[in-house]
Amino acid sequence: MVAGRVHSRLGRVHHSYSAGMNDLDSAPTPPTSEPEGPRHIRVADGLAGQRLDVGLARALDVSRAEARRLLSSGAVRTRERPEDDERIASLSEKGRLLADFEVITVGDFVPPEDRRVAPEPGLALRVLDRGPGWLAVDKPAGMPVHPLQVGESGSALAFVASLHPEVHGVGEGSLRSGVVHRLDVDTSGALLFATEAKTWRRLRDAFAEHRVAKTYRAVVAGELRHAMTQQLGLYVARHRPAFVRVAEAGQTDGVRIAEQRVEPIEALRGATLVEVRPVTGFLHQIRATLAHIGHPVLGDETYAPADVASQASRQLLHAARVGFEEIEAHAPDPADFSNVVDRLRE
Prior knowledge:
It contains 7 helices and 14 strands. The protein is an alpha+beta fold and 346 residues long. The chain has 3 domains: 39-109, RNA-binding S4 domain (Structural Genomics Hypothetical 15.5 Kd Protein In mrcA-pckA Intergenic Region, Chain A, Roll); 114-208, Pseudouridine synthase, CATH 3.30.2350.10; 213-345, Pseudouridine synthase.
């Protein structure tokens, strides 16, 4: 293994919060993430010969994607031999093999278990529904579900943390505390969070077992005349930025079957307002499958041709409803969505 942490975490104060605290005036503000100083890693037998990004992920107990983000940010410095000067390691070196006794320094590192989202009560989100251990909010387009790095602001989780400080540490914890499912940044609508561990596990299991009812509304190019049930194999063809394709016949590697029901609601000028009820929840499932059948979502710069993508300022996909047992959250069409529909009616 690697000789790990030079800076001790003894003496760090951990605050606790009583569950169910909803009053903004009385709720204590949780501490934000504080860097514990540079982390020094000395490469020993366990890491020598590993790729830089893999070794970094193992030593810091983070994902490989996060290790690459650290490399991209310039936070990682290396010294391959004692006589060498320390230098910044770039992302292009991610595949370089680590040398015996190499020293890696990561500046101002915050361990994942100590990362917190700073609460932002001023964000413009509406609570759609709530109950013991959960709440549903209406996420606007352009807002991420949760931050990717410490210090990022403007996420839906930051708003939830302002209402429920006890969300910190729930579920995956860290910067994904309480996140039950996700919406694309430019997709608006109903978004669920869990504020206690038992409820998070119940909801996650329900999503995994396809027991959550979801309805999306979308404006798609062309005239879609008939309702259809789609069952298509999807795979991630590219990760950064993400791009999903429909699998060819016989293709199995990395392929998952996506299922959904698509129903036309209203014929518009050169477009159709549809409702989509997905059974599964694969990445970009609705956008990729609708584009595959020749009806891409208006405003979708990833899957639609330029003339379709230019018809709206963002992808016109909206999570209108999410329901499971006692949960029933409905999000009305946002103004930008309704404005395009009205324009195409004229």
